[in-house]
Amino acid sequence: MFSTLLIHECGLHLNQPIPLSFKVSPSFPSLPWKQENKLPAPDSWAPKDISNASGCLELKLQTRIAEGRTGVTFSAQVISATTDGGGDILSSMPPTVCLKFAKQEFCRSLAREAWMYERLEKCQGTSIPQCYGFFSSKMGQQSHSPHTTTFVPWEDRIYSFEGTDEGPPPIWSPSPDWLPDDDGHSADDCDDPVRTESPWNTWQRDNNDPTLAVLVLELLGEPCDGRRSFKDKYGLAVVTNLPLANFVTKGGRHGSL
């Protein structure tokens, strides 16, 4: 697991491309569900330990792939991969990866998605894409002022927050970037420190110093165009059921995201 991520041409300063840096970040776990459900429960819902993360992954932003409600995806060229001691481990990486950037309002949601990839680590590379880490930063931690820096992935946005989310967040959510399990109605322990002590639990959007968050993933095939044959749909159902079955045994449930 890399501790540092550097993405060239991810920002603009005075209309000139600049690199932006990120640090490895903890994911955001779901609430433990009630054991009365009689589902096989994992030993812990804790996020992956990042204390031993090391090395740097260096990328160059390339082509925008797609945009959804919570994020925007880009392809990126892998420039270098090194250990803290300067060892070259570029051969362990593919030449190109997929970057999923959270939109301004949804960094907490992306942290939850990162937790799901951790839960399904054994399925990565087969049923789901390989995940190379979850990283975040504050715009104010970059080398230029947040007031003069443009975050390229947020440019040319198609779907506005107002266009996808109606009304204020529920009063029971500790964050405006609310998740279905924030209500706690199906949890064994709503005060589980694994969750309550997470920096993402009460995360708030800061317009003056926004959070930047990104998942580094395996780049797969062509973007989905929405058209599927019977063969496509059947194959999708088979592949989808495999990670879902594994996800339940790892602590996930409907409503985790």
Features:
single chain, 257 residues, alpha+beta, seven-stranded mixed β-barrel, 4 helices, 8 strands, 16% helix, globular
Write the layout of secondary structure elements.
Layout: E1 4-13, E2 16-24, E3 56-67, E4 71-82, E5 96-102, H1 107-119, E6 131-138, E7 149-151, H2 161-164, H3 193-196, E8 211-218, H4 230-249
Parallel strand pairs: 1-3
Antiparallel strand pairs: 1-2, 1-7, 2-6, 3-4, 4-5, 5-8, 6-8
Summarize the structure.
The chain is 16% helix and 27% strand. The chain has helices at 107-119, 161-164, 193-196, 230-249; strands at residues 4-13, 16-24, 56-67, 71-82, 96-102, 131-138, 149-151, 211-218.
Quote the distance from N terminus to C terminus: 24 Å
Low-confidence stretches: none
Oligomer: single chain
Report the structural category. Answer: alpha+beta
DSSP helical segment count: 4
Largest sheet: 7 strands, mixed, barrel
Kindly state the number of beta strands. 8
The chain-level mean pLDDT equals: 85
* Shape assignment: globular
Report strand %. Answer: 25-35%
Instruction: Return the string of H and E elements.
Output: EEEEEHEEHHEH
